Amino acid sequence: EAQVTQNPRYLITVTGKKLTVTCSQNMNHEYMSWYRQDPGLGLRQIYYSMNVEVTDKGDVPEGYKVSRKEKRNFPLILESPSPNQTSLYFCASSLSRLLNTGELFFGEGSRLTVL
Amino acid sequence: DQQVKQNSPSLSVQEGRISILNCDYTNSMFDYFLWYKKYPAEGPTFLISISSIKDKNEDGRFTVFLNKSAKHLSLHIVPSQPGDSAVYFCAASAEGNSGGYQKVTFGTGTKLQVIP
Fold it and tell me: Which residues of chain A does B107 touch, with a Cβ-Cβ cutoff of 8 Å?
């Protein structure tokens, strides 16, 4: 089954404790991206990757890191989480690095709470 | 700076009637527009899109209209069904310097409730 898989789905952590949210897709997609969803703010793009070893900042990259060492994986790293990073996070992928269709496939989301 | 705006946080419609969801954008460089639907506890799913060279795109019960001069697009659902109850996100993108639509900007979403 074609899918984007995120882990963990739910996480409660404390300020400053490094964490990684993994994202994996099995569709051989070139393009991958991370979003966060917050009330009243919609979905905001954190980072995106056009292909392996190619990453770029989205609209809200502060406090986050990403890497794209393999085509299928695009982990989101919070080196020193803070309470303002409490949010619902979505990973998404798209077949073409050119995103010709604009059709993104989303994971089910990871709800992160930072105390 | 919210470049894509959905000014109605919620909308209630009777089953069988038309649902109209609106979206406004400010960035004139946007030339590709999409609608996504999101159910609780799930990721958004792509619904329909439209290129700026068109003013209408239809897919079954869903039609998207684009008015470039007004920087406005709308999603029409006819007839509305209870299963359409979800949050709908408008999204827009612009072609990047190296080609392709790299950044997709989403609106804040409109929660649609279709009443049986």
Answer: 42
Residue A15 burial by CB count (10 A; 0-12/13-18/19+): exposed, middle or buried? exposed
Q: pLDDT digit string (tens) for B32-91?
A: 899 999 999 899 999 999 999 999 999 999 999 999 999 999 999 999 999 999 999 999
Contact B42 A109 (CB under 8 A): yes
Residue of B nearest to A109 (CA): B43
* Sign of the four-CA dihedral A65, A69, A71, A73: negative
Strands annotated E in A31-86: 31-38, 42-51, 54-57, 65-66, 76-78
Q: Which two tokens stand for residue A103?
A: 């059709």
Least CB–CB distance from A58: residue in B32, B43, B103: B103
Compute the nearest-CA separation of A79 from chain B (Å).
24
Helix or strand or coil: residue A83? helix
**Distance between CA B47 and CA B35 in Å, rounded?**
5
